[in-house]
Amino acid sequence: CCPLESRSLQFSRLLQQEERAPAAPAPPPARHLFSDPAEVEALRRNLLAWYDRCKRDLPWRTLAATEPDADRRGYAVWVSEIMLQQTQVATVIDYYIRWMQKWPTLQALAQASLEEVNELWAGLGYYSRGKRLQEAARKVVSELAGRMPRTAEDLQKLLPGVGRYTAGAIASISYGQATGVVDGNVIRVLCRLRCVGADSSSPAVIDWLWDMANVLVDRSRPGDFNQALMELGATVCVPKSPLCGECPVKQHCQAWRRVEKDLAFASQKLFGKAAPVPDVEDCGLGDCPLCPPATEPWDSSLGVTNFPRKAAKKPPRAMRTATCVLERRGCHQAPEYFIVQRPSSGLLAGLWEFPSVPLAQDLQEEKEREELADHLQAWTGRPVAAKGLQFIGEVIHIFSHIHQTYVVYSLHLDGDVTLDPALSPSRWVTEDEFRASAVSTAMKKVWGADPHLSVSGSVSVQKVLYMWSINQGTQGKGEIPPFLGHGPTLLDSALSILLPCWVGSGLIWSHPLVPAHLGHARDGISMVLAPGLDWRRWGAEGGGLQHCTTAAGPCRAAQLSTVPGYCPPRSRALPGGQ
Ligand code: SF4
């Protein structure tokens, strides 16, 4: 096979031929090319017709189609494209609406504070995106007189944080520039359309895909075409179970053709007809840099999901951080919590969190407590006893490249605390203020891990175990076994360790997973742990199930008794005398 560079040249020539069409004769079909202008036309037509019929109604699409002011239109598309990077459409919609209501123009955004931007962005992840968007808006206002650059080249050159993809999307959608775009969805669709099985994250393949996107983009409706290609990847040509039967471009799809050939071959074999093995392993050009490597040929069981292929990702780095929910009584004895601001660069830059300290891996618990106590002492300016820290549990949060474990403690402070202005910004907040602050999703999880803080909302297994441990008076005595994992894994692990001692201690754990014979255990506290369980109230005096709801509605005694293995408590009545 010819080297990739020369194929790129070939591609460019085809592009030129297409621009000069119809004079140039169609080049011979090649597996990785769209070399037939008639096919390109048909693909554009089919894709756009499907998009017109099936596109999702999204707020940024409405703005892009209806906003007459070119700068506002470009800004509206820009915000959506930045928010959509690495984030699902369903998540973005609400953030987008609130953002555009608050800052409908570049000028409004340029006047906002970074704190306001972070507060609105909180929970959307990849926080530097909001910060960079605001910096770039300020630049457009101060250096470009508020006028958005109109071409992909200028957008990329002049706006910080705007890369090739975002520039192409803004220019094509807002300003009608006939330029292609390549994002994750487009990579998947194009790799399948043209059986590109080489590492799709390699620069050579990415360049090839950009060339292909530029050839394909519809000259009269470039913005719609680009959105259609991305929409196809998001709703039909999805990563795991693509809906090829409903695909508007399946007749142009080489991967689909390959599957059809496999099926035809299998059925011929079934009926005993001798048939040659399909010659579709590569494009027929020998050692092709775009075909799957010879060591990983087409796998029939994967079908079209043979494409795209990526080099194995590096596993995320494991990090451990001790964090403390520091609480005091504020005005009118209302609880307040201490939060500090993270540095202005790096992970979660500028966001607020409970005071936290990174830990070395495999540190003894005693050492972890001491490190956290020292850290808290620096914040509060008074001695903090490591033993006084109450262990809450562990919260795991996966960042794109970090597997972060927060070891959560809590501590109640009496009296006033003087905050040191020489340290990073810090403040005391009420629960409502905490929720409205620029805190990360990870910190919201930490908040949810503390049963004192979050008596409503979905309960975590750790929280229930912690409740149990408080009630049993084992907290702080080192009797809580280490539980690993989340969800069902954690539950299994917890049950396998705890059930024997609960039987012995007279505690009943009522759950479909609990074997029926445990129903004979002495009653104590009964809990039902079910998916979506929502503990509304946990009794402050000695614990006890007072009221709970499941995803299916309020959980009453009659329903509890239908849970296999459930044994109604004898000495402790449920609310309402049930
Ligand atoms: Fe994707 Fe299947 Fe359509 Fe090909 S036919 S583009 S694999 S959905």
Automatic annotation (TrEMBL):
<keyword id="KW-0004">4Fe-4S</keyword>
<dbReference type="GO" id="GO:0046872">
    <property type="term" value="F:metal ion binding"/>
</dbReference>
<dbReference type="GO" id="GO:0006298">
    <property type="term" value="P:mismatch repair"/>
</dbReference>
<keyword id="KW-0411">Iron-sulfur</keyword>
<dbReference type="Pfam" id="PF00633">
    <property type="entry name" value="HHH"/>
</dbReference>
<dbReference type="InterPro" id="IPR023170">
    <property type="entry name" value="HhH_base_excis_C"/>
</dbReference>
<dbReference type="InterPro" id="IPR004036">
    <property type="entry name" value="Endonuclease-III-like_CS2"/>
</dbReference>
<protein>
    <recommendedName>
        <fullName>Adenine DNA glycosylase</fullName>
        <ecNumber>3.2.2.31</ecNumber>
    </recommendedName>
</protein>
<dbReference type="GO" id="GO:0005739">
    <property type="term" value="C:mitochondrion"/>
</dbReference>
<keyword id="KW-0234">DNA repair</keyword>
<dbReference type="Pfam" id="PF14815">
    <property type="entry name" value="NUDIX_4"/>
</dbReference>
<dbReference type="GO" id="GO:0034039">
    <property type="term" value="F:8-oxo-7,8-dihydroguanine DNA N-glycosylase activity"/>
</dbReference>
<dbReference type="GO" id="GO:0000701">
    <property type="term" value="F:purine-specific mismatch base pair DNA N-glycosylase activity"/>
</dbReference>
<comment type="function">
    <text>Adenine glycosylase active on G-A mispairs.</text>
</comment>
<dbReference type="Pfam" id="PF10576">
    <property type="entry name" value="EndIII_4Fe-2S"/>
</dbReference>
<keyword id="KW-0408">Iron</keyword>
<dbReference type="InterPro" id="IPR004035">
    <property type="entry name" value="Endouclease-III_FeS-bd_BS"/>
</dbReference>
<comment type="function">
    <text>Involved in oxidative DNA damage repair. Initiates repair of A*oxoG to C*G by removing the inappropriately paired adenine base from the DNA backbone. Possesses both adenine and 2-OH-A DNA glycosylase activities.</text>
</comment>
<keyword id="KW-0378">Hydrolase</keyword>
<dbReference type="GO" id="GO:0032357">
    <property type="term" value="F:oxidized purine DNA binding"/>
</dbReference>
<dbReference type="GO" id="GO:0005634">
    <property type="term" value="C:nucleus"/>
</dbReference>
<feature type="domain" description="HhH-GPD">
    <location>
        <begin position="83"/>
        <end position="235"/>
    </location>
</feature>
<dbReference type="InterPro" id="IPR000445">
    <property type="entry name" value="HhH_motif"/>
</dbReference>
<keyword id="KW-0479">Metal-binding</keyword>
<keyword id="KW-0496">Mitochondrion</keyword>
<keyword id="KW-0326">Glycosidase</keyword>
<comment type="similarity">
    <text>Belongs to the Nth/MutY family.</text>
</comment>
<dbReference type="Pfam" id="PF00730">
    <property type="entry name" value="HhH-GPD"/>
</dbReference>
<keyword id="KW-0539">Nucleus</keyword>
<dbReference type="GO" id="GO:0006284">
    <property type="term" value="P:base-excision repair"/>
</dbReference>
<dbReference type="InterPro" id="IPR003265">
    <property type="entry name" value="HhH-GPD_domain"/>
</dbReference>
<dbReference type="InterPro" id="IPR003651">
    <property type="entry name" value="Endonuclease3_FeS-loop_motif"/>
</dbReference>
<dbReference type="GO" id="GO:0051539">
    <property type="term" value="F:4 iron, 4 sulfur cluster binding"/>
</dbReference>
<dbReference type="InterPro" id="IPR015797">
    <property type="entry name" value="NUDIX_hydrolase-like_dom_sf"/>
</dbReference>
<dbReference type="InterPro" id="IPR011257">
    <property type="entry name" value="DNA_glycosylase"/>
</dbReference>
<keyword id="KW-0227">DNA damage</keyword>
<dbReference type="InterPro" id="IPR029119">
    <property type="entry name" value="MutY_C"/>
</dbReference>
<dbReference type="InterPro" id="IPR044298">
    <property type="entry name" value="MIG/MutY"/>
</dbReference>
<dbReference type="GO" id="GO:0035485">
    <property type="term" value="F:adenine/guanine mispair binding"/>
</dbReference>
